[in-house]
Amino acid sequence: MKAGVMIKVITVTIVFLLLITLNMIALAKEKAQRLRHILVSLFFSLSGLAISILLFLDIAPSSPAVWIETILSKLMQVITW
Amino acid sequence: VVKDYQISNRQLFSAIGCFLIGSTVIITPAAAAKQNAWLALLIGLAGGVVLISIYTAIARQNPMKTWVEILKDHLGKIPGSILAGLYIWYFIHLATLVLRNFGEYFIVINYNETPLVFVNLLFILVVAYITTLGIEVIGRISEVFLVILAVNIIIVFFLLVGLFDAENLKPVLEEGLQPVVSASFSLIAFPFGEAVVFLMLFPFVNKQKKVCKTSIFSYLFVGFFLLLVIIRNLMVLGADMAVRDVFPSHVVFRLIPGLDLDPIVDINFIIAGVVKISLCLTAAVMGLKYLFGLNNYKAMIIPVASFILPLSVWIYGSLPEMVQWATDIWPVYSIPFQIIIPVIVLIISSIKKRSRKQSFHS
Question: For a tag on chain B, would you pick the N or C end, based on fewer CB atoms within 10 A?
Fold first, then answer.
């Protein structure tokens, strides 16, 4: 792995972890459904982090736009058939 | 819904206005109809008015309920929750697309050497901040900027009158109605049908009875200004150039004789874009609030925004791919979200209301 890519990956990981920590501190004040808040928040933050790392490493799979296009074209084939 | 935040009907009018103008002024969705784009807009607008009437009818029959609550009420807890989840994805996806549109616009027009992720980061920071301030603030921003946007479009229109060539609007319906109808279908999906986002926000409007009237007036208002934009672009550039250019409005601004209004005009459009993304983000986080029974929707803004940012970079490989997706795939993909599900819910809601009335009378 190139040094530049490594630095990008480490930076984005630190930024996301910082955001997650700050969010967790804010959520610690919640009295009701704290766990739900944390789980939903973690789901989006970690997904964002995963996509960022995959993009920087240049190993991201085809995007949701391509998935949707494929699903729709298969659906259209079924409908026309 | 606990109404701890409210927007006035005028703010709703402006929010819908900014939302619809949003990315439509920089990318012309009716381009496929060539010189008949104005006709496609009028047909699309009629379709849009029908759609917003459906959305407001749903809101009227289910007062003080957000779209997620309505789905759960009428379709059952599990199917309703699944559909609500899909709608949250749709709102996030829409925010991502608009963010990418504006990111690409910035890079193509001004910052050719700047990475897309950096431009989008600056955008999403502003959007997240505005969303944290609440829908009242988004309403107030729209109130100010819709007027500026409208004045802006009128001024640019008159500054370009000298370059207008009415021949560019001819021949009318040269290739028949089919291209016009298909372009108007694209227009219904982008931007008019995208106002399905407002089903999450209607419960927070002050005067519920006027929601329908306000929304329809806003559509007509926006329709008029979009008509000016399309006619202006066609008369200045001609149909071929307007179709070939991804951002025809920008090319038109550069042609204003003796003036370089480009940055001022761009800033106004970008603000409309920020309003549109903020409304999508608000709808998404509110959806999460009502889907998972969370108390604090604002705590979800940063996580969702930090998901939207990398998604906006990942979603398309290039600018042509983005344009092709927006014109070919988006209208088909949007049919269930914008038309099928709302119509089904409206029918179920009407039947339930009627049976409730009948049982009350008997």
Answer: C
What is the distance between the alpha carbons of residues B301 and B306, in angstroms, rounded to a whole number? 8
Nearest CA to CA, how far is B310 from chain A (Å)? Answer: 6
* B30-56 pLDDT tens trace: 777 888 999 999 999 999 999 999 999
Helix (H) or strand (E) holding B144: helix B135-159
Peptide bond before residue B191 is cis, with ω within 30 degrees of 0: yes
Distance CA B243, CA B246 (A): 8
What gap in Å lies between CA B151 and CA B139, rounded to an integer? Answer: 19
Phi and psi torsions of B7, nearest 5°: -125, 150
Contact A63 B325 (CB under 8 A): no
Selection from B332, B1, B4, B353 nearest residue B199 by Cα: B1
pTM: 0.94
In angstroms, what separates the C-alpha of B321 from chain A's closest C-alpha? 10
Nearest-angstrom CA–CA distance, B41 and B339:
18
Nearest to B295 among A30, A45, A60 (CB): A30
Cβ atoms within 10 Å, residue B209: 11
Residue numbers in B near A40 (CB within 8 A): 288, 292, 294, 300, 303
| Per-residue pLDDT tens digits for B293-322 | 988 888 999 999 999 999 999 999 888 888
Beta bridge partners of B205: B7
Count the neighbouring beta carbons within 10 Å of the beta carbon of residue B229: 23
Residue that the structure tokens 């490493």 belong to:
A57
Q: Which of B145, B41, B97, B91 is nearest to A63 (CA)?
A: B97
Closest CA to B192 of B55, B89, B87, B59: B55
- The answer to whether the beta carbons of residues B153 and B229 sit under 8 Å apart is yes
Residues B36, B227 contacting (CB under 8 angstroms): no
Burial of B18 (0-12, 13-18, 19+ CB in 10 A): buried
* ipTM confidence: 0.93
DSSP label of B315: S
pLDDT in tens, B170-213: 888 888 888 899 889 988 998 899 999 999 999 999 888 899 99
Instruction: Choose the closest CB to A16 out of B295, B306, B313.
Output: B306
Residues B304/A44, Cβ–Cβ less than 8 Å? yes
Mapped onto helix, strand or coil, the DSSP state of residue B205 is: strand
